[in-house]
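Checklist before submission:
- one chain only
- standard amino acids only
- sequence pasted in full

Submission:
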Amino acid sequence: MRKPRDFDGELKALQDKTRELKTRKVQQLGELVIATGADALSADELAGALIVLAETKEAGRREAWAKRGAAFFQSRARRSASTTDRDTGGTPAQPSGAQPAPSRKSAP
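Returned file contents:
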């Protein structure tokens, strides 16, 4: 005879995994805000910029933003690869090792 499935246990495990993924997503978004230097903006400014980005349907503009973002991540990957080759003599300032970029305001 087959062993019955523990649906309650499986559901709880899925809920725990969902909670963990949401927590990780929030943490990563926070790290991204800090790494880009956007933490220097007020919450209202940051929210407004994100709303404009979400509302923009212009494919060319969105593509340009995507390329700029990809370049940001590629430059960070190169920087972290070069810093792992040497002994830094300490722990990173942030859990992910991300360092805040200098703040600069520019029009999109």
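Reviewer check: Confidence is low (pLDDT under 50) at residues 86-108.
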